[in-house]
Structure formats: structure tokens, C-alpha cells
Design a protein that fits this description.
Layout (H helix, E strand, L loop, with lengths): L8 E9 L1 E2 L1 H24 L4 H13 L20 E7 L4 E8 L5 H8 L6 E2 L1 H10 L10 H12 L15 E2 L9 E6 L5 E7 L19 E3 L3 E7 L1 H7 L1 H10 L4 H14 L4 E7 L4 E5 L3 E7 L4 E3 L14
């Protein structure tokens, strides 16, 4: 790496919730996250752009049935899968995304395609037309576990607030199920930032409900900072969380200060979510109001994760 290049940084998340069931659950999730971090970080070390890295990371997370995005997405109340995804390139400060798209393997690929379009956010009908234009193969992201989950909830008239975020029954909630989204934030060797986020939604929601993932509230990046959020989408939208953190960094706060202040406010408002972030100097920060943030990172020296992080102190971030 030349003297004028930066050490790449990377953080990914696979959702938020209350607890992972048993040691086996933690080990399985940790293994999945670390493997993806290592593969994406190798791309950054090879000179890949931040925007390429976050798309690659989202593809890998979408392809892992363990997480609620792409393959393994939850079903809405009518039994259909509708997914949303967004990409924001901090270098160009361009946001693109798709909302409630169906029948494809990787929603993040459509968000990537829309980066070069004048119309950069499409809903279901527009996204379906774009799929046809691109000759994207039809793909069914449904898994047996998600179908069984939906059928069980249908018997109870969808009493749960959300579907589970982690497959194989590993994420356990007493009052509601896990909060499912995946996301990736990266800083490349040229100092450019990007963020990408993808989700299958809450599960069991009203037909056509729109998540935060394809909004600047849930996914935002500039040349100063980049943020991806996970949790209850309505709470993230109400706080405009990703954009709020980035704006505070732009106004002069450190990334840790901006995140801490935003999460103090969120706790006062009884919000339920988490966020991952990186700034232009390579600081990696995360925060949460829920019990568990399912995330892993590469700080330029080693891979780590948040699975054992209690989050009792909001200032307990990694730099």
C-alpha cells in the first residue's frame, strides 16, 4: 500500500434482536459473518472501490439463508416476499434503491444498476420492469423455514410484530421477533465511503409496507461518513437515523460523538434499532438500543464482531 493510500475498513450487520439461542447459535452466526467480512475485505485490499465492496457484501449476505434479505426473506401477510435494498456512494453522494421488489436473487444488484439512472429509486412495478429490461433470471427466495414460519403465524392471525431474523430458530424474542436487515459499510484505500442495506421486511406486515432500508433514514453516505441501520424500520424513519448521524459528523462531531448523541435521543424516544458506521478517517462505530446487534468488522488488523458486546456504555465503540 502506497503512502497516499488509506487502510481499508469494513463493517457488516445481519440484523438486530434480543438474544442468540445457545452457544451453537452464536458460533454459527459468527462463522457466517466472519467469512463474509474476510471475503469482502480481500476485495478492498486488492484495490476495490467502497461501492463495489458494499454491493459484494450485500450479495453474500442476501445469499445466506440465515439472514432476512434475498434468499431467506420473510413473507408479508399475504404470503408474498417483497424485498427492498439501497446503495449510496459517498464519493458521488448518489442514493439508489428498490422498494418491495420480488422474484430475484439479489435486490442490491438493482440498486447498483440504478446508480447510473436519472430515476434512482423504483417501487415494485418499476423494479419489475427494470428486471425485464436487464433479463434478470427469475428466482424464488423462499425457504422452507420461512414458509413454515408464515403458516404458523397465519394460524394465530399474525399476532407477532415481526418474523424472526435468523434462520434455524437461533434468534429468540419473548414479546416480538427479531428485527431483520443486512447492511455493509466500507472505506476503501482511496478514502471513499459507501453504504448498502437490504431487507426482506418485518414479515407478516400489511401488503406494500415500505421499510427504511431504501431510504436515507436507513442507509446514507457522504465523503464524511457512511451508515447502515437495522431494527424496527418505523423507528429508524422517525429518527432519520443514518442521515442524522452523517449530518452531525459533517457539522463537526466525531463519528463516536454523533452516534452517541443520536442513540441517547433514540433511547429517550424508546426506539428499537442498531446502526453501523465508518468515517473518512477510518473510525468504525456502532450503536444499538436493542439487546443484540449482529455485526462483524475488519479494522485493518483483525476481524472482530459485536455478538458479545453488551452495549452498556454508549461510548464503548471501536476506533
Amino acid at each position: 500500500m502506497s503512502a497516499n493510500q488509506q487502510q481499508p475498513k469494513l463493517i457488516i450487520h445481519g440484523g438486530a434482536g434480543s438474544s442468540l439461542k445457545g452457544k451453537g447459535g452464536i458460533d454459527a452466526v459468527r462463522q457466517s459473518l466472519h467469512k463474509i467480512v474476510e471475503e469482502v475485505y480481500a476485495l478492498l485490499l486488492a484495490g476495490g472501490k467502497a461501492s463495489e465492496a458494499v454491493v459484494k457484501g450485500c450479495q453474500l449476505l442476501e445469499d445466506e439463508p440465515r439472514f432476512n434479505a434475498g434468499t431467506g426473506s420473510v413473507l408479508q401477510s399475504d404470503g408474498q416476499i417483497r424485498m427492498s435494498a439501497a446503495l449510496m456512494d459517498g464519493e458521488s453522494q448518489r442514493f439508489s434503491g428498490v422498494i418491495n421488489v420480488s422474484r430475484l436473487k439479489n435486490p442490491i444488484n438493482l440498486a447498483k444498476e440504478l446508480q447510473k439512472s436519472d430515476d434512482r429509486v423504483l417501487s415494485d412495478y418499476g423494479a419489475a420492469e427494470l428486471l425485464r429490461e436487464l433479463n434478470t433470471p427469475v428466482y424464488n427466495p423462499l425457504t422452507d423455514l420461512r414458509l413454515q414460519e408464515w403458516m404458523e403465524e397465519r394460524k394465530g392471525n399474525f399476532q407477532k410484530d415481526m418474523a424472526g431474523v435468523i434462520a434455524e430458530g437461533e434468534l429468540i424474542e419473548e414479546s416480538s421477533s427479531g428485527r431483520g436487515t443486512i447492511g455493509v459499510v466500507a472505506l476503501d484505500s482511496q478514502g471513499c465511503l459507501a453504504a448498502a442495506t437490504s431487507t426482506g421486511g418485518k414479515g407478516f406486515e400489511k401488503i406494500g409496507r415500505v421499510s427504511d432500508s431504501a431510504m436515507p433514514a436507513g442507509n446514507y453516505a457522504t465523503s464524511k461518513a457512511a451508515v447502515s441501520c437495522t431494527g424496527i424500520g418505523e423507528d429508524i424513519i422517525d429518527e432519520c437515523l443514518a442521515a442524522r448521524i452523517v449530518v452531525r459528523v459533517t457539522d463537526g462531531l466525531s463519528l463516536a460523538e454523533a452516534t452517541e448523541r443520536s442513540f441517547i435521543e433514540a433511547k429517550e424516544n424508546q426506539r428499537d434499532f442498531g446502526a453501523i458506521a465508518i468515517n473518512a478517517t477510518g473510525a468504525i462505530v456502532w450503536g444499538k438500543t436493542c439487546e443484540l446487534l449482529i455485526a462483524a468488522y475488519h479494522n485493518g488488523k483483525q476481524v472482530g464482531d459485536t455478538l458479545d458486546w453488551t452495549g452498556e456504555e454508549l461510548t464503548d465503540f471501536t476506533q
